[in-house]
């Protein structure tokens, strides 16, 4: 079974009412390839979710960038999985490196968040990736495996609604993109990890996205790699070139 190409746009903590409205207009006007060959998701900040969900073309789905680890209640400043479901939001990004490193979310905490979000019916874009120091120490796969292990311990065999995003920390927002060969090497190892630690079926079916300085200029070569099933895009997701990144699904089909 072929894995459907997936392109996610992570808008992070950016945007005003005016700029978000303009970005929605740009995405609505762009010529995008058929959703038969690509699944597209954008993740605005919580505060803009209702506007984007209402106004964005229906071929593009909407995701949150985070959610609380359990049922809502007295957790000031948090947003629960239930609230996202209530709003009709299908996806949530969890374990983004900015949350792991700046907000100090641990591997276990991210795993628990994945389990809770899945239990409420959200689909999860689970992010993993190593720092430059870890890569230089030769620990890339070890670190990614630790992050995946914590997710597996929390969710078990239940990976059908999980998309994995491999995002090397050194490539995020730095303009230093992994080469297609570097991305492919890690993605192949991650798929092997899934086969050995979850199941061959899950390894075959799970989409593994690359994230970190993806642009219209570098996406096509990355997309051609057999284990690169799409992208999670930050900076370029705020620009019209996001349309070109969506359309790199065609390079996948042609490869
Ligand atoms: P970037 O961010 O594309 O700006 O490097 C990617 C991400 O953080 O998901």
Automatic annotation (TrEMBL):
CC annotations in GO: cytosol
Alphabetical list of Pfam families matching this protein: TIM
InterPro entries: Aldolase_TIM (IPR013785), TIM_sf (IPR035990), TrioseP_Isoase_bac/euk (IPR022896), Triosephosphate_isomerase (IPR000652), Triosephosphate_isomerase_AS (IPR020861)
Record pathway: Carbohydrate biosynthesis
GO molecular function: triose-phosphate isomerase activity
The name this protein goes by in its record: Triosephosphate isomerase
Family statement drawn from the similarity comment of this UniProt entry: Belongs to the triosephosphate isomerase family.
GO terms under biological process: gluconeogenesis; glyceraldehyde-3-phosphate biosynthetic process; glycerol catabolic process; glycolytic process
Alphabetical list of PROSITE patterns matching this protein: TIM_1, TIM_2
Alphabetized NCBIfam families for the sequence: tim
Assembly description: Homodimer.
Lineage: Eukaryota, Viridiplantae, Streptophyta, Charophyceae, Charales
SUPFAM superfamilies the UniProt entry points to: Triosephosphate isomerase (TIM)
Entry keyword set: Isomerase
Keyword Isomerase belongs to the record: yes
